[in-house]
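Hey, I'm writing a tutorial for new members on how sequence and structure tokens pair up, and I'd like a real worked example in the thread rather than a made-up one. If someone can provide the structure for the chain below, I'll link this post from the tutorial.
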Amino acid sequence: MSALANKTLKRRLLLASDRSDHSSELANILRAVGEVDTIQTSEIPERPAADLSGIVVDINLRSPESVMMVRAKLQTEAYREMPRLFVLADALHHASMQAWALGATDTISRPFDARGILQRIRAAFPDNSAYDETDRGKALNRGVEAAHAVMVKIFDRLPAGEPLKLEDIVAAETRILKAIKHNSLREWLTTVGCHHQETYRHCLFVTGFAVAFAQHLGMREDDQRRLARAALLHDVGKAFVPVALLDKPGELTIEEMADMREHPRRGYDALSAQGGFPAEMLDVILHHHEFLDGSGYPNGLSGSEISDIVRLTTIVDVYSALVEKRAYRLQFTHAKAFSMMEEMGSKFDRQLLQAFRPVAFGHY
């Protein structure tokens, strides 16, 4: 291989296949962006090679034998940080859920769109020289700075009458996604956990968990962006709650809690009146405290009345609140927080909650 080719092909991909043709069509597509080693599913090594950029898994997800074999290999500590792209035979929801349960970090579907696949590969599997420690640190800092700038606009400027624009949120999302993708959720939480303002800190925690969850579920980048925007904005209504109430160093009285519970409606009303925000973002702002059993607020929605994006945001919102240190209590451990949510039973989408488990436990 020429020196030029060695310089260009920085990625090394492992393609694990149980297909009789060894996924030859996919392998040919992948070779446009890196070196490809094709192996049988049974040959997935116990530990990935140090220079491996990522693994692509093309198996029959309806085969219990194949699924068990892949699960045994990829859900070990050795593969925890390894990007894992799964090939779906179709785009049906059950196939996606099966792939996510096996630890997929992204998915693609047949029939193959070569250009789309290459874009996904470049995004999911950065080449081995793409990010050194300095670059990763810069990406993290830029992401946190961008998210912080949004918090300033929400909590300092919006109450003063300065409009919040969707463009303000969109401008931050790319840096936030890149920060979490090229660092770790733990690094994001450690950095934003130092913030002195509890409300800012909570919103940034929720954003970190939401983006990491979206990336873990293999959501397309557009959907990751939608979720990042919703997470950043979910508590915008707290901008209209008195600071003394937000920062009270103890539990709230019944009257104070009633006032606090007005924040979803206040945020929704403010941004609805202003205009320019997508309906799904307003849905999250208004309903992120709704529970599937109808016990939430402000509308007491239940079951199918609650959208998927709200269900997901509610899970990361409650989990974030439990693992944060509050003025009136210490934070719960990640294991305790997740256990508490499991005990809440029918309040959450149970399938989504279990899908969140690797995010909750995978970075600590």
